[in-house]
Amino acid sequence: IHKGGILYPRESETRQVVSLDGIWNFIVPEVNSSKNPLVGFEQHWYKRELTQIPDVTVIPMPVPSSYNDITTDWRIRDHVGLVWYDRNFFVPKYWSEAGRVWLRFEAVSYAAQVWINGQIVMSHEIGHLPFLAEITSYLKYGKENRITVAVDNTLLPDTVPQGKVIELESGRLQQTITFDFFNYAGIHRPVKLYTTPKTYIDDVTVVTMEATNEIARIKYNITIGGTSDMKYQITLSDNSKNVVAKNEDISESLGTLTIENPNLWWPYLMDPNPGYLYSMEIVLLDSYGEVVDKYIQPVGLRVLSWSNTSFSINGRPLYLHGFGRHEDSDIRGKGLDLPLIIRDYNLIKWVGANAYRTSHYPYAEEIMDLADQMGIMIIDECPGVNIEIFSETLLKKHKVSLTEMIKRDKNRPAVIMWSAANEPRTQYPAAKEYFRQVIEHIKSLDTTRPTTIVESQGVNIVQSSEYVDIVSFNRYNAWYSNEGNLDVVISRVVNEATAWHNKFNKTVIMQEYGADTLEGLHFSPSFIWSEEYQVELMSKHFEAFDYLRNQGFFIGEFIWNFADFKTRQDYTRVGGNKKGIFTRSRQPKSSAHFLRRRYWNLAKEFY
Ligand code: GCB
């Protein structure tokens, strides 16, 4: 685990960022004649160009993307184990004077080992999270360089998330998983080279201490790498670039700033100007007053508070209405795709949602940036989905995933809650101590946001809800249980939400409900899988939610799912999970129009 910060690489007068995205070389060892999965390590493939290795097929592979759906070879789609990527790149000569050069991967699923010019520079496990290393001494300046990455998608009982590998009678390995979404793999997010000076800003933490219409106060903490003898100059500017607060020529890395008549960060639909961001310019100065390093950090002014009956932002109670989602689309799988993410935000705004959960892993930083800018509130979920077997090793890695996620997202105003896990088997006694420690770990890193665990087990057997701040549950009434019986939905939802509140005396969110729906399938009267059924199931839930909202503890509703998504091959899934209100190509089903009416009405009623 990288000890320092994992700040998003941003350009400034003192920093340059270069993208390594593009078409890389790619090899899947087993689809070649040798069939030996470890051949790449045995033959030291990282010591030469992949295209120079005899008797293997090198194919072009886009980065960022999942590799699974790019080719027409099912052996690549369903491959379990190691694959290899490489490419060449140039480093300008003047970079040798830059100070330091860093390499940062925004996410590789699941594990990665990285070489520069044949020398190992870093390894990382757990997908969906960034990792970086300084590579100054590994580079050839003014020359061509090579980067090689070995990627392993294997999920085991001690990985986050968990999985098992079985050998089929054909001799092929098969990945088994407890969650339904497709286990996409590859270099999923951008790869960047960037420079910093020798002494550099390593990490920034900004917390809003107070946020009213008259005054806001933030506390910051800067950590630096290199010489510690530096002066700091901290400037906060509004979005018209006017300086609103400043700390000049100070030697402390910790400080506060006060902003008069601030523009607070408000969620979408709660204010005419949602997602207002200031920018905090952090400058390091040497003893001559020369600028050494500069980093610009967006800052949203907002405070959260919660009790056993409400959850508020800047003192105003919230009602969360949105969905669970996935990073998923045709061909690129979980690869970052800018047209797709902007389309998604346009749909989120169209439908009138104010929040979503990053089910079931942290989403790309570009997606999170847009949430900050648009005022879409995020329940930030770590990759611990459907944990079945609790162990010490798993607990350690689970904590690492939370450390990395919180380090990455701690400054984001959009992130309003940490979700420690989705549907863990919390009925087992071992879950109790496990989640006590998981939640304690989150609290040791951040106390400004509430925690939750998204539960699927029954209220009376769950071992972990006493530790969280907000209770979340998923339930598929009239789908996985009582399929077809829409008339039982209202009482079941009301009774269960009430039981959670009564038992734990906390606020409650329904994080998932829904029905698989094939677009264009119509039945009257409604019948499962039809558009009518999805709409009717929603309308029953809405009646239950309206009743619950008046009881004073129910703070959010999230339909499963925003869009249809690819799953593992399973006889209950026809071309994937179809519970989306949008299709996988992001067109509305009848349910999207229906949800839109409700979400806009909720917004009007609340704000
Ligand atoms: C759940 C899971 C989610 C699934 C969903 C379903 O409870 O949290 O990952 O996709 O059910 O549709 O089965």
From TrEMBL:
<dbReference type="InterPro" id="IPR017853">
    <property type="entry name" value="GH"/>
</dbReference>
<keyword id="KW-0458">Lysosome</keyword>
<dbReference type="Pfam" id="PF02837">
    <property type="entry name" value="Glyco_hydro_2_N"/>
</dbReference>
<dbReference type="GO" id="GO:0005615">
    <property type="term" value="C:extracellular space"/>
</dbReference>
<keyword id="KW-0326">Glycosidase</keyword>
<dbReference type="Pfam" id="PF00703">
    <property type="entry name" value="Glyco_hydro_2"/>
</dbReference>
<dbReference type="GO" id="GO:0019391">
    <property type="term" value="P:glucuronoside catabolic process"/>
</dbReference>
<dbReference type="InterPro" id="IPR006104">
    <property type="entry name" value="Glyco_hydro_2_N"/>
</dbReference>
<dbReference type="InterPro" id="IPR006101">
    <property type="entry name" value="Glyco_hydro_2"/>
</dbReference>
<keyword id="KW-0325">Glycoprotein</keyword>
<dbReference type="InterPro" id="IPR023230">
    <property type="entry name" value="Glyco_hydro_2_CS"/>
</dbReference>
<dbReference type="GO" id="GO:0030246">
    <property type="term" value="F:carbohydrate binding"/>
</dbReference>
<dbReference type="InterPro" id="IPR013783">
    <property type="entry name" value="Ig-like_fold"/>
</dbReference>
<dbReference type="InterPro" id="IPR023232">
    <property type="entry name" value="Glyco_hydro_2_AS"/>
</dbReference>
<dbReference type="InterPro" id="IPR036156">
    <property type="entry name" value="Beta-gal/glucu_dom_sf"/>
</dbReference>
<dbReference type="InterPro" id="IPR006103">
    <property type="entry name" value="Glyco_hydro_2_cat"/>
</dbReference>
<protein>
    <recommendedName>
        <fullName>Beta-glucuronidase</fullName>
        <ecNumber>3.2.1.31</ecNumber>
    </recommendedName>
</protein>
<feature type="domain" description="Glycosyl hydrolases family 2 sugar binding">
    <location>
        <begin position="41"/>
        <end position="197"/>
    </location>
</feature>
<dbReference type="GO" id="GO:0005764">
    <property type="term" value="C:lysosome"/>
</dbReference>
<dbReference type="InterPro" id="IPR008979">
    <property type="entry name" value="Galactose-bd-like_sf"/>
</dbReference>
<dbReference type="GO" id="GO:0005975">
    <property type="term" value="P:carbohydrate metabolic process"/>
</dbReference>
<keyword id="KW-0378">Hydrolase</keyword>
<comment type="subunit">
    <text>Homotetramer.</text>
</comment>
<keyword id="KW-0732">Signal</keyword>
<comment type="similarity">
    <text>Belongs to the glycosyl hydrolase 2 family.</text>
</comment>
<feature type="domain" description="Glycoside hydrolase family 2 immunoglobulin-like beta-sandwich">
    <location>
        <begin position="199"/>
        <end position="302"/>
    </location>
</feature>
<feature type="domain" description="Glycoside hydrolase family 2 catalytic">
    <location>
        <begin position="308"/>
        <end position="602"/>
    </location>
</feature>
<dbReference type="InterPro" id="IPR006102">
    <property type="entry name" value="Ig-like_GH2"/>
</dbReference>
<comment type="function">
    <text>Plays an important role in the degradation of dermatan and keratan sulfates.</text>
</comment>
<dbReference type="Pfam" id="PF02836">
    <property type="entry name" value="Glyco_hydro_2_C"/>
</dbReference>
<dbReference type="GO" id="GO:0004566">
    <property type="term" value="F:beta-glucuronidase activity"/>
</dbReference>
